[in-house]
Amino acid sequence: MKFEDFEEKTLCRQDIFKGQVIDVKCDTVTLPNNSGTAKRELVFHNGGVAVLAITNDNKMILVKQFRKALEKVIYEIPAGKLEKGEDVDPQAAMSRELEEETGMSAAKIRKLSAFYTAPGFCNELLHLYKAEELTKLDNPRAQDDDENIELCEVTLAQAKAMVKSGEISDAKTIIAIQYWELETYD
């Protein structure tokens, strides 16, 4: 089948909400093969970065923090949103987030992947990097004013056990752990 066999053409778009992090819109679309119309509620996001930060003793750095949308504390890899204009250099944004959240910089950085977080309704593209040869900085950038985080370090086996137990339930972190495991056993 061709693209045209799947494409939903937008008839009209309504702005629902314009925020600092996301915009919400509602599209009325024609369905493929003229089979009718439908509404699509869409979230537009500038994208983000995340980092699988591996310490010199082969442990992964996790950030423990409260997430309001979930009303609970979860474990995640260091990550953050791309500010306007940063989409041209997501690696620089990742280095900034690594420094802000861990107080470290990395001598070795490699892009692992870029993936959509929730393509059924959102266009957010997350760039995932691996950072190694970490160095603690004397005067790192400050954390964001609204961040309250705690760092912890885990081995691959501990990270996998945390996924299995549900202690790690964040998709980007699970994907990062999978990349780490693939590279470890390749």
TrEMBL record:
Q: Which GO terms describe its biological process?
A: nucleoside phosphate metabolic process; ribose phosphate metabolic process
The cellular component terms of Gene Ontology attached to this UniProt record, alphabetical and capped at eight, are: cytosol
**UniProt keyword list:** Hydrolase
What InterPro entries does UniProt report for this protein, alphabetically? Nudix_hydrolase (IPR020476), NUDIX_hydrolase-like_dom_sf (IPR015797), NUDIX_hydrolase_dom (IPR000086)
Q: Which CDD domains has this protein been placed in?
A: NUDIX_ADPRase_Nudt5_UGPPase_Nudt14
Q: What region holds the Nudix hydrolase domain?
A: 44-176
* GO molecular-function terms, A-Z: hydrolase activity
Which co-factors does it depend on? Mg(2+)
A Pfam family: NUDIX
Where does the source fall among the domains of life? Bacteria
Matches recorded under PANTHER family: NUDIX HYDROLASE DOMAIN-CONTAINING PROTEIN (PTHR11839:SF18), UDP/ADP-SUGAR PYROPHOSPHATASE (PTHR11839)
Q: What is the official name of this protein in its record? A: ADP-ribose pyrophosphatase
Q: Which organism is it from?
A: Pseudolactococcus plantarum
